[in-house]
Amino acid sequence: MARNFGFLVLILSIILICEAVIFNPITDSHRSAALELFTPVDGSLGSLEETYEALRTFEILGIEKKPDIRASTCPSVVDTLGSSSSSPKDLFYSFKVNGLLKCESNEEVFAGITPRLKASVNDVNILLDFYYLIGSLVLIKDQASEVDVLLGDGDRIFQSIKDLSQSDGRWRYSSNNPGSSTYAAGIALETLAGVVSLSSSEIDQSLIGALKNDIVKLFDGIEKYDDGAYYFDEKLVDTREYQGSLSATSSVVCGLTAFATATSESLDLPGEKILGLAKFLLGIGIPGNAKDLYNQIAALACLESNRVSVPLSTVLGSSAPPLSVKLVQAFSSGSKDASIIENQELKFDPENAVHFLDALPKSVDVGNYIFVFEIVFHDPEHKKIYAIGGRRKVTIYVTGVIKVDSTEIAVLDSDLGSIETQKKLDLAGENALSLSANHLQKLRLSFHLTTPLGHAFKPHQAFLKLKHETKVEHIFVLGNSGKKFEIILDFLGLVEKFFYLSGRYDIQLTVGDAVMENSFLQALGHVELDLPEPPEKATRPPPQPVDPYLRYGPKAEITHIFRSPEKRPPQELSLAFLGLIFLPFIGFLVGLLRIGINLKNFPTSAVPATFAILFHLGIAAVLLLYALFWLKLDLFTTLKALGFLGIFLMFVGHKILSHLASTSAKLKSA
């Protein structure tokens, strides 16, 4: 790696069915996510730190139609820079936001802050304080070139920060905190890069050399995924200081590139690991929160990273330098020595900026192949700037339709080996064969598998399954000899495995492979097995798992069967019976007329008359209740209502009868 470590990482892949995960470059989806995650609330993006992260993300992604927050943010920036009580962190992010929004350009303000920052650098011993103070001086240097920000004792400050480093390349946040952090290592590297750029004299090379050794040790502890992606994981330090793998990786990448840019030393780091860091950052996809999105985009900007598929370019849209892509070797995964392609340069389509292999040799059959690619720069000097990760091996799956023929199933006599029943099958269609066998016979199934070029094909999966009507299953692996696959089931030796269960067994054949386009799982039919009775101590079949849906699902609806209604009598008989019921009532009315009923004794005073009226209404209500019981009410409802009416009638009846008795007594005494 050369002096300018702001390198471009190029990762090669092929637009075929590959074993590796294909990582997509930065796209408009990231821009849409940025606008969604960094949404102003009441015209503000939050704190100065959050505001800077949003603005920096918009800048890197080239978002032009970003929220206008200048009116709400600049007053806060100006107030922070003008206040003598502002914390180092607030000053640091105020300078960062000011560099993007240009809120304050008065060099007198910067000149007034600088002495305070220089004095504070000599008094602190906490890494984050060094980071904010040194970073602020670097930003002043960029925004106000006339202000003197140089440090006269750069070696001492460098050594003070270096004292916080650990033997494994990680760093402590302070001398009082024994826990070390990978995230802190990135912060320290960026801070030391600032010390190098601010020092009035060249930093002692022994200090630079020691720091380079720390960087190598840090990379020795890098983590790796199976797909070749590398990342830095944070060890558990203080819970308040814990950072995830994305934050730790972003911190180290940005700190590393800042330090490499500030020094004239070369950093001899493996290109494979630099390439793996880019793969990790790209493999994340689109983070779901604003902090992670900023960390991802900021780290990719530091790498000025890649696109992991042909065509070759950077993730941020820059074009790759002139180069060639060579297919060094292609061979079958099962036979490394027999190469099908060697040292063939891929053609380049300038219109689409795509490197492609126009055709494969005719000898390429279905199967797994390893393609080895190499990137060759036209300008040898680019090797010092760009990391390409060396040769890339990619697994290619060449798929095709496998021919299945000569499929036969037969029942054989166990003693003589003669064929009792034999049937041909068409595995391309439906089959519903019906066979029968006993424990003295055998079942044989055979078929041939052939590739499009006529070679024998061995799939990853070839199973025969017999499933009893009680749901007990038995699976057998088919063996092969060349193109022929065959299995013979000797039922005499399988009676114990079958738990002596006679009856119907459904037959199912499964043949599948990643490169077999016509993989299948097909029911062939059934066989009726007649097995001997189990002995007393024979193993019983295992209990079959109960379907949770049957146990906890909805139960069957219960249907009540009521007694059929009895046949009703003729309508004329019912009407005649109704007339007989009304005869006593009519007789009652006639009797009342015969005895000369009158209302002469009906009370005339208000209170007795009210009780009399209520009594007669109560009697009418009882009669109405009887009618409702006859028409619609049940017995319990009727009795409940009759109880209330009875109590009411007893009360008002007692009152009216008492009045009548009193009136009668007065008449007799008169």
UniProtKB/TrEMBL annotation:
<feature type="transmembrane region" description="Helical">
    <location>
        <begin position="609"/>
        <end position="629"/>
    </location>
</feature>
<feature type="domain" description="Ribophorin II third">
    <location>
        <begin position="406"/>
        <end position="529"/>
    </location>
</feature>
<dbReference type="InterPro" id="IPR056790">
    <property type="entry name" value="Ribophorin_II_C"/>
</dbReference>
<dbReference type="Pfam" id="PF23860">
    <property type="entry name" value="Ribophorin_II_3rd"/>
</dbReference>
<keyword id="KW-0732">Signal</keyword>
<dbReference type="GO" id="GO:0006487">
    <property type="term" value="P:protein N-linked glycosylation"/>
</dbReference>
<keyword id="KW-0256">Endoplasmic reticulum</keyword>
<dbReference type="InterPro" id="IPR055373">
    <property type="entry name" value="Ribophorin_II_N"/>
</dbReference>
<dbReference type="InterPro" id="IPR008814">
    <property type="entry name" value="Swp1"/>
</dbReference>
<feature type="domain" description="Ribophorin II N-terminal">
    <location>
        <begin position="26"/>
        <end position="304"/>
    </location>
</feature>
<feature type="transmembrane region" description="Helical">
    <location>
        <begin position="573"/>
        <end position="597"/>
    </location>
</feature>
<feature type="domain" description="Ribophorin II C-terminal">
    <location>
        <begin position="562"/>
        <end position="662"/>
    </location>
</feature>
<dbReference type="GO" id="GO:0008250">
    <property type="term" value="C:oligosaccharyltransferase complex"/>
</dbReference>
<feature type="transmembrane region" description="Helical">
    <location>
        <begin position="641"/>
        <end position="661"/>
    </location>
</feature>
<dbReference type="Pfam" id="PF25147">
    <property type="entry name" value="Ribophorin_II_C"/>
</dbReference>
<comment type="subunit">
    <text>Component of the oligosaccharyltransferase (OST) complex.</text>
</comment>
<keyword id="KW-0812">Transmembrane</keyword>
<dbReference type="Pfam" id="PF05817">
    <property type="entry name" value="Ribophorin_II"/>
</dbReference>
<keyword id="KW-1133">Transmembrane helix</keyword>
<comment type="function">
    <text>Subunit of the oligosaccharyl transferase (OST) complex that catalyzes the initial transfer of a defined glycan (Glc(3)Man(9)GlcNAc(2) in eukaryotes) from the lipid carrier dolichol-pyrophosphate to an asparagine residue within an Asn-X-Ser/Thr consensus motif in nascent polypeptide chains, the first step in protein N-glycosylation. N-glycosylation occurs cotranslationally and the complex associates with the Sec61 complex at the channel-forming translocon complex that mediates protein translocation across the endoplasmic reticulum (ER). All subunits are required for a maximal enzyme activity.</text>
</comment>
<keyword id="KW-0472">Membrane</keyword>
<feature type="signal peptide">
    <location>
        <begin position="1"/>
        <end position="20"/>
    </location>
</feature>
<comment type="similarity">
    <text>Belongs to the SWP1 family.</text>
</comment>
<comment type="pathway">
    <text>Protein modification; protein glycosylation.</text>
</comment>
<dbReference type="InterPro" id="IPR055374">
    <property type="entry name" value="Ribophorin_II_3rd"/>
</dbReference>
<protein>
    <recommendedName>
        <fullName>Dolichyl-diphosphooligosaccharide--protein glycosyltransferase subunit 2</fullName>
    </recommendedName>
</protein>
